[in-house]
Design brief:
The protein has 396 residues and is an alpha/beta fold. The chain contains 11 helices and 16 strands. The chain folds into 2 domains: 4-187 and 304-394, Zn peptidases (Aminopeptidase); 189-301, Alpha-Beta Plaits, CATH 3.30.70. Helix 4 links the parallel strand 3 and strand 4. The relative contact order is 0.19.
Length: 396
């Protein structure tokens, strides 16, 4: 096989220029009009068949290989976050209050570079590549985690029917040169919860005349921490985090109600069911004991992201060959973070892999979603090389 690492290296000026342009002009989920327009224009310039407006602002490109075979979907997310950038980079965001703080600008640039590479080798492909440039992975535009589901609703997995998927994420928790390809679960499933505690308000100096929802809320938050420590086995994994608590209007008024929001993260369906059951039981039980009423709503955002063993094994083999000097990590259960690519991988076998992207010496080591987030752009080369090589290996 052609040395795709060298090819990705030769395309680096193109990849970097695209990444920096996307970084300067970030767009939130389902508003990726400019980004999607550039993606479509670049794909069309290669002669790739393009469909726009898939999942509102998503773009799909279809590249037919020289021989018949399966259809492989390659997914790249495009959306930014509602964060004010504080990097001081020359290519910093020009859109106030919006920045690419998760690397999706890099993903989109990698995707277009992969399209260039695979288009040059299309005669060697036995099958079809479906390039999927997805909107709203972050779910920050009031729509929830909707990008993957919206594209699926619009038929991204059909016509032609998708047989396998590949996707990637630049990972600033690990240094440049680290590559993670694992079999089985790699990212957690996510739930969003909203809880309302209804009491009886009154004067802060006369608490005996009230049913205090603030005290009840505090007891619920404390009691809910026992779910992970006492209802989930130590060798299993779960997270229950309360992240928003609202209640009260004045220092001397006990409010009528308190609202709380947060997230639950799990990997295994059995653990998920147990955590949600105990979560609801504790809330209702504590509230009842304290004379309050409750309203509890737990909404599933994404399932756990699980790599198919056979697909991941093939990508692992490709990674060792294409990136021989990398630090290869094959351990599952990488992060409690969630990813809506999980919806596609529920339907179609696939592999989601990670490319280390931080560089502490250059102070490019802030975590994802931080106002100072930025990554070492050399990671773009590794990402493009591995994605291209894995696609070619699967469609030999």
């Amino acid at each position: 096989m052609t040395n795709l690492l060298n090819e990705a290296q030769s395309h680096f000026p193109y990849t970097q220029a695209l990444r920096r342009d996307f970084h300067m002009h970030p767009e939130l989920g389902f508003t990726e009009i400019r980004t999607g327009g550039i993606v479509a224009k670049e794909l069309e310039a290669l002669g790739i068949e393009v469909t726009k407006g898939v999942g509102k602002t998503g773009v799909v490109g279809l590249l037919e290989g020289g021989k018949p075979g399966p259809t492989l979907l390659l997914r790249f997310d495009m959306d930014a976050l509602p964060i004010t950038e504080d990097t001081g980079a020359e290519y910093a965001s020009q859109n106030p209050g919006i920045m690419h703080a998760c690397g999706h600008d890099g993903h989109t640039a990698i995707g277009l570079t992969v399209a260039k590479i695979l288009n040059a080798h299309k005669s060697e492909l036995a099958g079809t590549i479906k390039f999927c440039f997805q909107p709203s992975e972050e779910g920050t535009n009031g729509e929830g985690f909707g990008g993957a589901e919206m594209m699926m609703k619009d038929g991204v997995l059909e016509n032609p029917k998708v047989d396998l998927t590949l996707s990637l994420h630049l990972w600033n928790e690990k240094p440049l040169g680290w590559v993670h390809v694992a079999q089985g679960p790699v990212m957690a499933g996510a739930e969003e919860f909203k809880v309302k505690i209804i009491g009886k308000g009154g004067h802060g100096a006369l608490p005996e005349t009230t049913v205090d929802p603030v005290v009840c809320a505090v007891q619920i938050v404390s009691a809910a921490q026992t779910i992970v420590s006492r209802n989930v086995a130590p060798i299993e994994t779960a997270v229950v985090s309360f992240t928003i608590i609202n209640g009260g209007t004045a220092f001397n008024v006990i409010p009528q109600e308190v609202t709380m929001e947060g997230t639950i993260r799990t990997f295994e369906p059995r653990v998920r069911a147990r955590v949600i059951q105990r979560f609801e039981e504790i809330i209702k039980g504590v509230a009842s004991a304290m004379g309050c009423q409750t309203e509890v709503n737990v909404k599933r955002l994404t399932p756990a992201l699980i790599n198919a063993d056979d697909v991941a094994a093939r990508v692992q083999e490709t990674a060792r060959r294409v990136l021989p000097d990398a630090l290869h990590d094959n351990t599952p259960y990488l992060t409690m973070g969630a990813e809506d690519m999980a919806f596609m991988q529920e339907k179609v076998d696939g592999c989601y892999f990670f490319i280390g992207s931080n560089n502490a010496e250059r102070h490019l080591d802030y975590s994802h979603h931080h106002p100072k987030f930025d990554f070492d752009e050399q990671a773009l080369i590794s990402g493009a090389a591995l994605m291209s090589a894995a696609a070619m290996d699967i469609l030999k």
